[in-house]
UniProtKB/TrEMBL annotation:
GO MF: agmatine deiminase activity; protein-arginine deiminase activity
Gene Ontology biological-process entries: putrescine biosynthetic process
Annotated organism of origin: Billgrantia tianxiuensis
Record InterPro entries: Peptidyl-Arg-deiminase_porph
Pfam families linked to this entry: PAD_porph (PF04371)
Superkingdom per UniProt: Bacteria
Keywords attached to this entry: Hydrolase
Gene3D superfamilies registered for this protein in UniProt: L-arginine/glycine Amidinotransferase, Chain A
Protein name listed in UniProt: Agmatine deiminase family protein
Length: 345
């Protein structure tokens, strides 16, 4: 995978949906920042100047090198940087950040400030490469690429009428090929997680580990309501072929015990597919479950040259996302190194 400058995060606000869990989610994100900054920079959009000052001191106390912490004041509605953050491409040898429309997963939630966040960060000088606005609705979690011309996505999300109803499958595929320079789009027709607000983002279900390898969620419990759709997805993945005609090496990820919201009892979308690849490491969500160790072992085998770093995401799934959903990687050459503690406001 391409070398990275940084991982972008959006810090939770006390006025957001995270309010009842604020201390817990902040602790999780602190653990993420400490882990990521062992390998590279972080860029964090914070809600106000006071939070910026607090986080600069907090991370200094936690031993994070000041040179690896980049803080920018830019308000947001929520924390899901994967979906409101920019998507990087290389065009004619130059990096470009693509800024798509974010509508809160088809209008489910307020997203006006989230949608403006990338442009705000660009105006503040956070990025070292151009930001290009597109008027199509697209979230980063809806797509996954192998870096060699193939893109993986789901019909349930990209063909959902709550995204771009004016575009049919052929038009969506043409757009993806034009914008990302890919030659092939692989569609999954099956797979979902209860409690997922994204209409089956592929980053909750199946991910490229390298151009020949896909890790995916497998449900082994035939009594679980997820079993039919995930079994059908497994059949689809086995039928997919690489550009050279060979089948993919498939890495099944285990199925954790069901997680339920302690307040109203609805099921939460715990998934090990929501891992984050960074320079020399893979951060993996864990849930205090017996399956955690098997998931870590499976991904260690899929990424033998990277450290495997578990991150407790029990608090994250309370708001229906996980580790990868909270993050957006910025490739080498895309971060403005001047955007350090307090320099961007």
């Amino acid at each position: 995978m391409a070398p990275q400058d940084a991982v972008q995060l959006t810090w939770p606000s006390p006025t957001s949906d995270w309010a009842p869990l604020l201390e817990r989610i902040e602790a999780t994100m602190e653990a993420m920042v400490v882990a990521i900054t062992r390998y590279q920079n972080v860029l964090i959009a914070v809600p106000d100047a006071a939070t910026r000052v607090h986080l600069a001191q907090r991370f200094a106390n936690l031993g994070v090198a000041a040179a690896r912490l980049h803080l920018a004041v830019a308000e947001a509605d929520d924390t899901w940087a994967r979906d409101h953050g920019p998507i990087a491409i290389e065009r004619d040898g130059d990096l470009v950040l693509l800024d798509y429309v974010f509508t809160g997963w088809g209008g489910k939630f307020e997203a006006g400030r989230d949608n403006a966040l990338t442009r705000k960060l660009a105006d503040l000088g956070a990025y070292a490469c151009p930001v290009e606005s597109h008027d199509i609705v697209l979230e980063g979690g809806a797509i996954d690429t192998d870096g060699e011309g193939t893109l993986l996505t789901t019909e349930a999300c990209l063909l959902n009428p709550n995204r771009n109803p004016q575009l049919d499958r052929e038009a969506v595929e043409a757009l993806l090929k034009a914008d990302f320079g890919v030659e092939r789009v692989l569609w999954l027709a099956n797979g979902h997680l209860e409690g997922d607000d994204t209409d089956s983002h592929v980053d909750t279900l199946a991910r490229f580990c390298d151009p020949a390898t896909i890790a995916y969620v497998r449900c082994d419990d035939e009594a679980d309501p997820h079993y039919p759709a995930l079994a059908a997805m497994e059949v689809e993945l086995k039928a997919l072929r690489r550009a050279d005609g060979e089948p993919y090496r498939l890495v099944p990820l285990p199925w954790p015990r069901p997680c339920f919201d302690p307040v109203d009892g609805h099921r939460l979308p715990a998934t090990y597919a929501n891992f984050l690849i960074v320079n020399s490491a893979v951060l993996v969500p864990v849930y205090g479950d017996a399956a955690d160790s098997r998931a870590l072992a499976a991904l260690a085998a899929a990424f033998p040259d990277r450290d495997i770093v578990p991150i407790d995401c029990l608090s994250v799934i309370r708001q229906h996302g996980s580790l990868h959903c909270l993050t957006m990687q910025l490739p080498r050459g895309s971060l403005n190194a001047a955007t350090q503690q307090g320099e961007t406001s």
